[in-house]
Amino acid sequence: MNAHANRAAPFVADDPRMHWHDKAVWYVRGNRDRAAASVPEWEALRELAAQVKAHTLSRLPEYLELFERNAVRLGAQVHWAADAVEHNQIVLSILEGRGTKRLVKSKSMLTEECHLNDFLSEHGVEVVDTDLGERIVQLAKEAPSHIVLPAIHKKKEEIGELFHHFLQTEAGASDPKYLTEAARGHLREKFLAAEVGLTGVNFAIAETGGVVVCTNEGNADLGTSLPSVHIASMGVEKLIPRAADLGVFLRLLARSGTGQPITTYTSHFHGPRPGGELHLIIVDNGRSALLASETHRRSLSCIRCGACMNTCPVFRRSGGHSYDATVPGPIGSVLAPAKDARRYASLPFASSLCGSCTDVCPVKIDLHHQLLLWRQELGKQRLTPLSKRVASRVVSFVLGRRRLYELLGWFSRVLGRMLPRPLLHTSLNPWARQRELPPMPRESFRAQWRKRRV
Amino acid sequence: MSSRNSILASLRRGAPPAVPLPELPATGQRFDDPLAHFAQMLAAVGGRSERVASTGLLSSAVGALPVVAQAARVASLVPGAHPGNVPLNTIDDPHTLADVDVAILRGEFAVAENGAVWVPARELGRLQALPFITQHLVLIVDPAVVVHTLHEAYGRLRFDGPGFGLFISGPSKTADIELALVIGAHGARSATVFLVG
After folding, report:
1. Could you tell me if residue A422 is inside a domain?
2. Is residue A434 part of a domain?
3. Which of A237, A247, A289, A364 is the most exposed place for a label (fewest CB within 10 A)?
4. What is the mean pLDDT of residues A188-195?
């Protein structure tokens, strides 16, 4: 167990990089704060967004059917996928139907969740991720470490080496402008050669049957306007009832994510373009089970802005890969155990429960509370380490008995002063592995309090 | 049972108690001078805007833009701004736009809060790629229809048929390498908005 902590160890071991990552991601959080403060009605928008999402989730089947009807009326083809396997199969059959082995893809966390790239590669399809950060991690055979900044864990020198190897850039070159220009040239060729483009979906509008995709680079737009077939993959939770709801969500999304007032491109697709095809794949893959969970359904409101990651003290210092989940950070630690409680049992503990994630969440998901609830559930299911369960039992026993608590408090104050350091810093005390115990006070807090009050 | 029906059935089984749909605000924050705020936000996201007093002066203003003056291939949907030399109405295949240097399009309205311009792609037809594949983008917008926030923007927009449209706020950009901002990722390397009239 302690899986997250173990996986974080190598990241933490590289101290300068860990601090660079911490600062870089925190800088984005600062941008978010400035952007949020520039909108006087920010808190009202968050509340509205939370309500619209809660409403939509309470009537999801109706809205999905309405969305489907409208999308079909506009000429789109709607597919339904119960799980990742079915989703991937649908994509493959669309490619096979066109007789093509090439796919350009813009950012989609859903396809990461479905492991679409691996599946298609096994079937001989060349998948090209076109978001710069995603292309970088794809070339490095890694997964994104952040949902908005997929390659934030990489230094420009490493990217330079990668590009030198794959894109024939100059050896040792690491200027971001130069590297971006090289990727632009390389990916233009891919855009021009592809027959099918796949995008994620930020919002699907029930009343109009349209989908909205937000990017800064323009990759989703090139990937859907050059190839004649556009596949858009969306989880069932991407629905919003009205086009006007976008006024709320788009005001929150980019400001929360990167601090931009809006992404460069906010594309509204209503039906296929003239002469083209639009395939919408609506995916469940565990979402209906999450909706049925009274405790955790609010996590389906997430609009994937990344703000909770940027602010999380644990994410900033452990890096996205330490979560080993499609979505890292606080929201990922809430979503992942719902999929596989045993595998992701350590994630709800990768948090200080400081509540900063909840404070910045644009749709007001009670993230730190969700993490706490998961800890309790995992404990009940005996999926937490034995040491943790025993310790909680002992603490709960002591805290429920005042006299015992006072006695043990006295003991530890005396022993803490008397015992030599090696006896306190044993392997039985993991807390003290990287920390020093504070000097023990002579009197308990209660005794000091009594004196002050007099 | 098809996946469609099984998904809908399990969503119905797990549906939470009804929650009302909130009314949306018709407006949000107001700016003393929305056009000035638009220009400021556009500059902040790496674009630029220029006021042109009348349509008569537009073509000389557009022509004076260095990226236009140096362009070999200009695709213009606004003849009054520039005649263009890419015969858009005879082109069917968007791939032939790969060497376009400048694209000139009409934007429907500007949004003060975020420097965005709504660009309906109706007249582009099969050439929806134009605003993205071009090296430089020029948008012509009537300053009389600047809105303060996206709430008013969606109050104006109607999506009652097939069609593509988008907000464009500045040039294409990325910060995926060490957060260093680079203008010109996949799309236009520059975005200039002319506010005419």
Report:
1. yes
2. yes
3. A289
4. 96
Tell me the C-alpha distance between B196 and B93, whole Å. 31
pLDDT, averaged across chain A: 95
Percent of chain A past pLDDT 90, that is, above it, reads: 88
> What is the average pLDDT across A352-379?
97
B178 interaction partners in chain A (CB closer than 8 Å):
24, 155-156, 176
Beta-ladder partners of A214: A266
Spatial CA neighbour of A127 closest among A91, A155, A160 = A91
At A126, give phi and psi (nearest 5°).
-85, 110
The structural domain count of chain B equals 1
Q: Which residue from A minimizes the CA distance to B154?
A: A244
Nearest CA to CA, how far is B78 from chain A (Å)?
21
A130/B contact by beta carbon, under 8 A:
yes
d(CA A47, CA A36): 14
Structural domain of A447 = 401-453
Query: Strand B109-111's sheet: what is its strand order?
Result: A239-240, A203-205, A210-215, A265-270, B163-168, B116-120, B109-111
Does a structural domain hold residue B20?
no
Q: Structure tokens of A339?
A: 């999929």
Does residue A261 lie within any of the structural domains? Answer: no
CB contact under 8 A, B162 and A258: no
Largest Cα separation within chain A, whole Å, is 86
- Looking at the domain assignment, is residue B87 inside a domain? yes
Q: What is the ipTM of this complex?
A: 0.98
Q: Please calculate the CA angle A90-A95-A99 and round it to the nearest 5 degrees.
A: 140
Q: How confident is the model at residue A2 (pLDDT cuts 50, 70, 90)?
A: low
Residue A308, pLDDT score = 98
What CATH number does residue B54 fall under? 3.40.50.10420
Confidence of residue A1 (pLDDT cuts 50, 70, 90): very low
- Tell me, yes or no, if A19 comes closer than 8 A to chain B by beta carbon: no
d(CA A208, CA A210): 5
B14 assigned to some structural domain: no
Whether B1 has its CB under 8 Å from any CB of chain A: the answer is no
> pLDDT tens digits for A107-154?
899 999 999 999 999 999 999 999 999 999 999 999 999 999 999 999
Q: Which of B105, B118, B132 to mutate to test the interface with A (most CBs of A within 10 A)?
A: B132
Tell me what pLDDT residue B1 has: 62
Mean pLDDT on A86-98:
97
Q: Which of these, A284, A253, A283, lies nearest to A148 by C-alpha position? A: A253
- Which residues in chain B (92-121) have CB-CB distances under 8 A to chain A? 94-95, 98, 111, 113-116, 121
Residue A421 has pLDDT above 90, yes or no: no
Residue B163 lies in a domain: yes
A278 touches chain B (CB under 8 A): no
Q: Is the pLDDT of residue B123 over 50?
A: yes
- Check CB contact under 8 Å for A55 and B174: no
Could you list the residue range(s) of the whole structural domain that residue B117 is in? 29-196
- Per the listing, tokens 């082995």 go with A101
State how many domains chain A has. Answer: 1
Q: Which residues of B touch A269 (CB under 8 A)?
A: 164
Residue of B nearest to A27 (CA): B179
The answer to the question of residue A56 being in a domain is: no
Q: Cβ atoms within 10 A of the Cβ of A92, count?
A: 17
Mean pLDDT across the stretch A90-106?
A: 97
In chain A, which residues have their Cβ closer than 8 Å to the Cβ of B22? 48, 51-52, 55
Contacts of A267 in chain B (CB under 8 A): 164-166
